[in-house]
Amino acid sequence: MKVKVVTNILEANDRLAAENQKIFDELGVFVINLMSGPGAGKTSVLESTIKEVNGKIKIGVIEGDIAGDDDARRIESLNIPVVQINTGGACHLDANMIRVVMNELPLKDIDLLFIENVGNLVCPAEFNVGEDIKVMLLSIAEGHDKPLKYPLMFQTSSALILNKIDLLPYTNADIQKIKKDALSLNPGLKIFEVSCKTGEGVSEWVKWLYSIVNNKP
Amino acid sequence: MKVKVVTNILEANDRLAAENQKIFDELGVFVINLMSGPGAGKTSVLESTIKEVNGKIKIGVIEGDIAGDDDARRIESLNIPVVQINTGGACHLDANMIRVVMNELPLKDIDLLFIENVGNLVCPAEFNVGEDIKVMLLSIAEGHDKPLKYPLMFQTSSALILNKIDLLPYTNADIQKIKKDALSLNPGLKIFEVSCKTGEGVSEWVKWLYSIVNNKP
Fold first, then answer.
1. What is the pTM of this model?
2. If one looks up domain A2-214 in CATH, what number appears?
3. Could you give the CA distance from residue B22 to residue B187 in angstroms, rounded to a whole number?
4. What was the ipTM of the complex prediction?
């Protein structure tokens, strides 16, 4: 019974997500659903990305949080169009939330839309929101056991940003194990080692972004 | 409609949680529901706690993970009775999962049972499992904006362990802001600064554990 309810919710969400994606496609917007656990640095990676891109492609952002608008204000201060969703308790964004806010953004003037999901390494992976691809972050401070404990997010993502790589010398994390386990779950996963503090890896990540956005059919 | 479904699930769960608590009470087991985002160090804090307690009170552990039994094996190697729950995708433990596994543990011989929840800063806070108190961890590497973004877990917890405090010099985290915001959400919250790497703060946390376990009515 419980499973049936969940299945129906997911099916209804997927239908709406497909409609969102069609709208984005018609407007030529490439959409990335950005996911991670709490505090892995999604907003910091967006800030670094926006600075590195420096207007070469036009970026927009939808911010998802349970409460607050800190992240939206950080993005807005970079002169990027942004809208904040407060889920009021819900642990993930869903397609209908995106539908409700998408027209608050100047979609015709946006090449690349980031949807920053609620910080949660579990639930967001189950809910499509209309994205072209999913990208996940893992902070190196979260440790090397995460791929095998949270497999779905690693399986559904096209790229993994290993963030806060500057903290590696101060942790016990085994980065080779993270990569090995992540690739065993998802052999096509593209992996970037990034530090928003030192700037390491940001240009490689942004180069890859250009290639996927420009190759959108 | 959607809200109604969720309400019913929560009510049914609360009923079962109250039954679990009655069973634990009758057997004299103090139960802590241990929660945090992924990789904040719940299992490491349990390891440090078990070593510091050193048999003075009898500890048992229920491990909750979506997949894998790494954490249970870490606890078992310390000669502590442990049982692993794999939720198979579910993002939190619920009261029925605890009911199903509780008799796998020698409850009569346990003074203090830790239930290590799935790593998730959102959903576990909504589901009682039969615990006396909730305790949450936040890794200092997660940053200082977490209390205001994930208020429910801070509001429902009796204690907050600020873990990986050894990483503080290498992050931009403002620990005073974390404490101030957490206390504004929950003025009675007991806060411990802990490093499992250096051992800092472990004895203060364990002293507090003794006091609450021994004062259980």
1. 0.91
2. 3.40.50.300
3. 28
4. 0.85
